[in-house]
Amino acid sequence: MNEEKPHILLVEDEIHLARGICFNLELEGYRVSHMETGEEALQRLAYDRFSLIILDIMLPGIDGFAVCKKIREFDMRVPILILSARSEEGDRITGLSAGADDYLMKPFNLNEFLLRVQGMLKRSAWYRPEPIEESYRFGESEVYLLSYHAKTPQGEIDLTELEVKMLSFFFRNEGKAVSRADLLETVWGYSSDTETRTLDNFIVRLRRYFEPDPSHPVHFQTVRGIGYRFVREQKRKQDENQDVGESP
Ligand code: CA
User: Fold this and answer.
1) CA distances from 4 to 30, 80, 134 (A)
2) How far is the CA of 231 from the centre of ligand 1 (A)?
3) Distance, CA 56 to ligand 1 centroid (Å)?
4) Alpha-carbon gap, residue 64 to 73, rounded angstroms
5) Fewer C-beta within 10 Å: the chain N or C terminus?
6) Residues 24-70: pLDDT tens digits?
7) How far is CA 236 from the centre of its chain?
8) Cα of 118 to ligand 1 centre, how many Å?
9) Pick the CATH number of 2-126 from 3.40.50.1010, 3.40.50.2000, 3.40.50.2300, 3.30.565.10
């Protein structure tokens, strides 16, 4: 069978241990990306998907529990394995209630670790046998983030990596005003004092792709003094008063 290698995200700040884990997972035929902090991992997860996330608890910056909770806010399905040097039973409970699927205590036996990983990947494959990609629909458009492709009012287009990053950030923050600083930081990794013309040009581009009328944007709106807001459905002015409730 011609299956794609499972892609695993490892979040671990102990370099020596991380190298060992990466080495052994790669020997097993997996692809591994390694991040040293939870912040980096969350940034990466804003635009990339993984088959499994292996998450250390004690990290510099936000800890593994918090990272796990954040991941679950936007992805309920990716399997998460927590690694912890702490031995209390309480940690196990905290980890599982933060949304982790499994828990392994350090130091662990390599074979047990690999079996655990294999088991989690297999289980998640049963739960979602789909190699079919979900699309994100709004207005007259349909976006396929994983294959960098979209159907738009202007026709079918291919998306660049930055466009995909930006769209996935907007989709996750649907309906909310997002600041220019947040957008720059998430998509480009810039700090807020950097030249921001790039961002505006990008928005112009997204409007040209996805707006039925780019000069009167309904999906990628400007929020004066703040930044931008992505709105999935156009709300007609005359409907606003008589509408009973919000539809999802
Ligand atoms: Ca650690």
Assistant:
1) 9, 20, 17
2) 39
3) 6
4) 14
5) N
6) 999 999 999 999 999 999 999 988 889 999 999 999 999 999 999 99
7) 31
8) 23
9) 3.40.50.2300
